[in-house]
Design goal:
Helix 1 packs parallel to helix 3, helix 3 runs parallel beside helix 4 (about 110-115) and helix 9 packs antiparallel against helix 10. A hairpin with a 2-residue loop joins strand 1 (about 5-10) and strand 2. The protein is of the alpha/beta class. It folds into 2 domains: about 5-195, 2-enoyl-CoA Hydratase, Chain A, domain 1; about 200-230. The protein has a 6-stranded mixed sheet with strand order 1-2-3-5-7-10. The protein has a 4-stranded mixed sheet with strand order 4-6-8-9. It has 10 helices and 10 strands. The structure holds acetoacetyl-coenzyme A.
Amino acid sequence: MQYLKIEKEDGIVQITIDREDKLNAMSLDVMNEFISVLDELEKDSSKVIIITGAGQKAFSAGADIEYMSKIGPTEAEKYAIRGHEVLNKIEKLEKPVIAAINGYALGGGCELALSCDIRFASPNAQLGQPEVTLGICPGWGGTQRLLRIVGPARAKDLIFSGRRINAEEAMSMGLVNKVFSSENLLSETKSYAKNIAKNSNYAVGISKMLVNRGMDTNLDTGLKLEIYSWSL
Ligand code: CAA
């Protein structure tokens, strides 16, 4: 792995996007590495995954703008599809994934955090979907996942304006679960992950699936899925 640093301890896996000089922007190489790591995590015995960014400044500043400026529609479509593959894998992983947002989470960086189950942030975090300022719409699920997390009015505010919000505002709209000081963000996230890891992998995994399915189905179907899962 060149751009992802993987650390494993007591069933907790920390994935650090390690491209600090480019504010952890996610090039195609970064996304390809994510696919390899997530393929492993689907099969192994790890219990909780943490995603963060290297350095003090950024979780991830998003898709790689330099790369985007050089490609045509065919490559752009491949890049968008790759982004969706990564984020869908995170969302469908039958283990909790926590984003530890340690700075900028913009565009694809914010979308990466949206695909995680829980979002913790440091006070210097800045979240946003600035794509419209670049003349494009969000491309890695921002229009769909932000809508489901904060509701249509807030999602439209953030997407139409491209404005950045701080950790406090993000928490006030349910986009961030909790804010920890920059020094404590990772240790608090790990300690939270360790508490989850004490619980049944199956029960946590199936609960994640049920909540996720519940967002996209009607109440009746969601409740039936719960009865079925509970009785297994
Ligand atoms: N892609 C590639 N490189 C990036 C980048 C990105 N998204 N964001 C920052 N960088 C690079 C800069 O080019 C710079 O590299 P050099 O030192 O080689 O010039 C380095 O990271 C440091 O960045 P800045 O000098 O700009 O740092 P700053 O502190 O002045 O500003 C910032 C920080 C406000 C986050 C600014 O870097 C910025 O606005 N970045 C772009 C954020 C953005 O628009 N993200 C959305 C991308 S599009 C997307 O993600 C589409 C999608 O939905 C999938």
